[in-house]
Each structure stands twice: as C-alpha cells, then as structure tokens.
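lol forgot to send this yesterday, sorry. struct tokens for the thing we talked abt
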C-alpha cells in the first residue's frame, strides 16, 4: 500500500464502508482532555470515520488524551508535507499512518523520531514484520494496520477454489483475469518469485528481477483488465465478466456475505500482506502522548476491535488475540504471507517502473 497511492486510499475508503456513520468525541471527553491532546493522521474516507467512532473516543476515555484526527492526502503528498513542515519545526500531525515505502523514505532524512519500545507493554507480541527500524536498530515505526490481497474468483465460473497463485498462469484462464496495474501496488513480482523462484529473496539481484519479469510476462494473455479503479474490477468479478484476479480479502468476504457469488482464497504460497506504520514526526512535541497511543493500539483487545470494526488484519501474534477463528479468518490467515519487497520500490523504483511498462502492461 510503495507509498499509499490513490489505490491505497480508496482501499481504506472501501474497507470502512461497513462501519456505521461517523461518531464524534463527546464534549465532556474533550473538555476533560484539553490539557493533553494528539494529532493523528489517518487514511481518509470511511476508514477515518471508523477510527473517529470506534477507536479515538475509547482511547480518550482510557487515557484522558484528546485526539484530533487528520485526513491524510493521497500518495507521497503527506510525506512531502510532513518533511517540509518539519523543516519549519511544525507537525501537521504528531503521529501518522505511513506506508512501508514512505516510512523508508522518511528514514533517509531522519524524519521519524525513534520510538522507545520499553513504553509498549505488548511490544514483544508484535510480529517482527510490523517493526520498522533504522539501520542502526532504532525503531522508526510500529505496525498500525495491515490487510491482505488474495486470489479471488467468481464461484459460478470456478466451482472449486484455486489452491495456488500459479492459476494466474494457467492457459485455461485466458482473458479471465483482473490484476492490479502497478508493480508497486500489485506486488506481482513477489508473487512470481514466491510461486516459481523459491521466495522473494530471488529478487535480491538484477538477474533475479529480470527472470521474475520474464516469468510474469507470461501471464499477459490471461489478463482481461489491469485495473487502477478497484470498483471497476469488483463489479466485473461479481457479475462474472472477469471471474478471477487479485483483490482484497476482507472486501471480497463482505461481498460474499452480501450474497454475491465470489470467494477469497489464500493460496498455498500465502496471501500478499500489505501494511502501514505509526510514525512520529521529528517536529512533534507530543512524545509522551504518542507513545501512549501506540501502546494502546498495540493491545490485543484493541487489535481485536480493529479487526471486527475496521476490517484490518492484526499486527500481533495469533496466540495473544481474543479473535474467534471465524473472526480471524475474515481478516487474516495462518498461512505465512508474501511480504512485499518495499526496499526495491525505493532503491530501484525508476528501473522497476520502466521494466513494468515495457514488459508487463505495455
């Protein structure tokens, strides 16, 4: 979710669509917390509304810290705004949800204040992949939210669920696929490497990347739509016009629950798990409040609440969660996920995008 592009932010809008209308902090809570406050940047739309209703008021009740939620703009714009403001000693938000790639880019300018993990009671319960560190080991970000991209099918066309991502390459699926249109949000290079090359470490070298591009190019005859507009593919999947592709696990599950003939499958190679971090601007003076917020958000009960109310995958180890098996399955999986190679989308961004245009979507 690379930076969170328009795709990512529309993603967050879709994700919260099942949540009730926005709730405001009650006036007494705001008055009680006037002496302590925190500005928190979150993805806009229904995602922000669900936080405003279900998360921020409970945090204020628990801590006495009032929250001002800030809707982040799309793409890298928020990273640029935070960087420019920090140079002037200002923080448009103290804490922000930030994509993995933008977190890495912010590290290069020391934009993020290192976090004191001793203040997080459940730090040891966080999955390692949700802790982002500076090269010297300082913690730059802690997992805020996560979600899965999976292999989705229309059940009228596919009576049996596919078991592997290799279904995307099956000649029987010619002209039947809808795939995300960008290297940096489809993560199909990683899928290719995990499915055919032994894992994403195969992408460590230029030679490995070239091989992955060549293999991925073989999928092109099967692709009906390279999509940027999620709604376009979702409608085509529901109708059966485009009966297979990659899409968001929880949104597909919601569509199935609404009676549409669609399913989400975690292939044996794993679903793609994308995520964002909580990061603290170096210009913020709300260090204590920010740590209290991350500590609160990292509690098993709150992670469970997020999964139930916001639709996000938990960032903590399964055994500490209070989620029932069906609740966990609605947002996550026990199959080891495919983790995007965010480092490549910072160190080799131009080269990858050029190759992607030439070989895959060109």
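and heres what i got for the seq, position by position
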């Amino acid at each position: 979710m690379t930076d969170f592009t328009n795709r990512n932010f529309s993603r967050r809008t879709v994700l919260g669509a099942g949540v009730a209308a926005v709730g405001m902090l009650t006036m007494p809570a705001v008055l009680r917390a006037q002496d302590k406050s925190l500005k928190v940047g979150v993805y806009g739309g229904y995602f922000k509304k669900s936080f405003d209703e279900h998360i921020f008021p409970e945090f204020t009740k628990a801590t006495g810290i009032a929250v001002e939620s800030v809707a982040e703009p799309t793409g890298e714009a928020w990273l640029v705004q935070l960087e420019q403001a920090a140079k002037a000693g200002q923080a448009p938000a103290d804490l922000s949800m930030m994509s993995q790639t933008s977190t890495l880019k912010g590290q290069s300018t020391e934009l993020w204040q290192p976090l004191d993990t001793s203040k997080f009671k459940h730090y040891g319960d966080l999955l390692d992949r949700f802790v982002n560190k500076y090269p010297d080991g300082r913690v730059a970000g802690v997992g805020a939210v996560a979600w899965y991209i999976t292999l989705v099918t229309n059940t009228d066309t596919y009576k049996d669920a596919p078991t592997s991502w290799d279904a995307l390459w099956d000649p029987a699926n010619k002209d039947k696929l809808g795939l995300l249109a960008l290297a940096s949000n489809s993560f199909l290079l990683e899928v290719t490497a995990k499915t055919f090359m032994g894992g994403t470490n195969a992408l460590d070298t230029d030679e490995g990347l070239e091989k992955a591009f060549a293999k991925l190019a073989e999928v092109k005859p099967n692709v009906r739509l390279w999509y940027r507009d999620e709604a376009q593919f979702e409608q085509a999947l529901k109708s059966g016009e485009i009966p297979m592709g990659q899409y968001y696990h929880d949104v597909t599950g919601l569509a199935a629950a609404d009676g549409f003939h669609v399913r989400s499958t975690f292939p044996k190679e794993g679903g793609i798990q994308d995520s964002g971090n909580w990061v603290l601007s170096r210009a913020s003076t709300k260090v204590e409040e920010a740590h209290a917020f991350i500590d609160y958000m990292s509690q098993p009960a709150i992670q469970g609440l997020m999964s139930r109310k916001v639709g996000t995958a938990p960032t903590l180890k399964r055994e500490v969660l209070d989620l029932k098996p069906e609740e966990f399955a609605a947002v996550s999986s026990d199959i080891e996920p495919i983790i995007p190679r965010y480092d490549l989308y910072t160190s080799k961004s131009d080269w990858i995008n050029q190759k992607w245009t030439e070989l895959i979507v060109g």
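The chain is about 40% helix and 20% strand. anyway ping me if u want another try
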